[in-house]
Design a protein that fits this description.
The complex is a heterodimer of chains A (115) and B (112). Chain A is mainly beta. Chain A contains no helices and eleven strands. The N and C termini of chain A lie far apart (36 Å). By secondary structure, chain B is mainly β. Chain B is built from no helices and eleven strands. In chain B, the strands form two sheets. In chain B, strands 2, 4, 5, 9, 10 and 11 form a six-stranded mixed sheet that branches. A five-stranded antiparallel sheet of chain B has the order 1-3-8-7-6, with no helix packed on it. In chain B, a hairpin with a 6-residue loop joins β4 and β5. The chains are: A mainly beta (115), B mainly beta (112).
């Protein structure tokens, strides 16, 4: 089945130690997103790639970076994790469409714990 | 940025009851999406709506795209324990590119 895959599902890192989360998709969608979700809150968009074009949200800290080496893979790099970065990180994909009709599909998420 | 007002924030119901939740905004949206999220998992798409007035069902779930394009509702009929979770509405505006605006979620608890 076509899907969005996130690895690992759980990640423990130390304060200040760089960490990378990965996302892959078999949907062949051209848009990939990274969201941060804290407990009982709505997902918050960090950035997204429209094909190879990177779109950063204005309030995303510089500590968060992303790479998309090809259509299928996208990575979230947290350069120096702080305690406040502990959260669920969600990857999503969509096939860009003009007007209505664009739907985002989410992966299962990676729960990040910062010690 | 634009906000979606989702209500109710939480619901406690008995198994077998029907449930209704909605999202409203002061802005026009051209896509409405409803997701369900279980603890420790990513949101799962339930229903997607693309046209004003559209009424779409998915099993016991029914959702409608408001005629004014500023609201949407989700109904769940004959609730069962596995309906427990957080339900999010999300909307996409013409001017927001691929970005979605999310509601704050409705936490549903179903008592057997």
């Amino acid at each position: 089945d076509a899907m969005v895959i996130q690895n690992p599902r759980y990640q423990v890192t130390q304060f200040g130690k760089p960490v990378t989360l990965s996302c892959s998709q078999t949907l062949n969608h051209n848009v990939m997103y990274w969201y941060q979700q804290k407990s009982s809150q709505a997902p918050k968009l960090l950035f997204h790639y429209y094909d190879k074009d990177f779109n950063n949200e204005a309030d995303t800290p510089d500590n968060f970076q992303s790479r998309r080496p090809n259509t299928s893979f996208c990575f979230l790099d947290i350069r120096s994790p702080g305690l406040g970065d502990a959260a669920m990180y969600l990857c999503a994909t969509s096939r860009a469409q003009v007007g209505a009709g664009e739907t985002q599909y989410f992966g299962p998420g990676t729960r990040l714990l910062v010690l | 940025g634009q906000q979606l007002n989702q209500s109710p924030q939480s619901m406690f119901i008995q198994e077998g009851e029907d449930v209704s939740m909605n999202c409203t905004s002061s802005s026009i949206f051209n896509t409405w999406l409803w997701y369900k999220q279980d603890p420790g998992e990513g949101p799962v798409l339930l229903i997607a709506l693309y046209k004003a007035g559209e009424l779409t069902s998915n099993g016991r779930l029914t959702a409608q795209f408001g005629i004014t394009r500023k609201d949407s509702f989700l109904n769940i009929s004959a609730s069962i324990p596995s309906d427990v979770g957080i339900y999010f509405c999300a909307g996409r505006q013409e001017t927001s590119g691929s970005r979605l605006t999310f509601g704050e979620g409705t936490q549903l608890t179903v008592n057997p």
